[in-house]
Specification:
alpha/beta, Rossmann fold
Length: about 210
């Protein structure tokens, strides 16, 4: 996306959040089972498994507290009075940390030598047409200092919204969030298995010794 488009979207987002109508804003939280587990999860980080370092999740400047609606791939808008209680990037990071912590074979760490997982939120939208649905999309990059890029993919989940109630939208958004972070955690687990395997030529070098 060009810098000019980001600037325009940022101004739209800022204007939508600052210039409110007389109606009081309504706040929503995604109805996510993983986020609920994150609030209650006091389990220590696993001591075993392939270490993964999750960097801070990022998002575009228009994905802020004001809820985004979308009617096509090129037309977006912001609800002035419907807002998230937190940033979408924060929801994604909390849910992803929880799911990665629960994934067998992986271990979250702050060690800079570990494989690094970068995640960008590219959609956290209420899709109006052609089908009313909640859409969450994440651009994922997993890279290792020695082995380079292990995973580069955009993953998404879309869940239908039952009716026009904003609470139904928040419930569907939470379900979409759960689906996509689970997909990301599974993909990271499979991609990270390469780190547990000897590099090509290792055995030959061992025999040479």
């Amino acid at each position: 996306m060009t810098g000019r488009r980001w600037s325009v979207l940022w101004l739209v987002a800022l204007g939508g959040c600052l210039f409110r109508s007389s109606d009081a804003p309504r706040f929503f939280r995604p109805g996510s089972a993983i986020l609920d587990a994150a609030d209650d999860n006091l389990e220590p980080v696993a001591a075993a498994g392939i270490p993964i370092r999750l960097r801070g999740v990022r998002s575009g400047p228009f994905l802020r507290e004001c809820i985004v609606w979308r009617v096509s791939d090129v037309e977006y808008g912001l609800y002035e009075q419907r807002r998230w209680t937190d940033l979408p990037a924060h929801y994604v990071e909390r849910a992803l940390r929880t799911r990665l912590r629960e994934t067998p074979g992986l271990r979250l760490t702050d060690d800079p030598r570990a494989a690094t997982l970068h995640v960008d939120v590219v959609a956290f939208d209420e899709v109006i047409a052609p089908t009313h649905a909640a859409d969450v999309a994440l651009a994922v990059l997993l890279e290792d200092r020695e082995r380079g890029r292990l995973l580069a993919r955009t993953m998404s989940a879309r869940v239908g919204i039952a009716d026009g109630d904003s609470a139904s939208m928040a419930t569907a958004m939470g379900q979409a969030l759960d689906e996509v972070v689970t997909e990301v955690a599974d993909a990271v687990r499979l991609s990270a298995q390469a780190l547990a395997e000897p590099r090509s030529g290792t055995h030959a070098n061992d025999h040479a010794r």
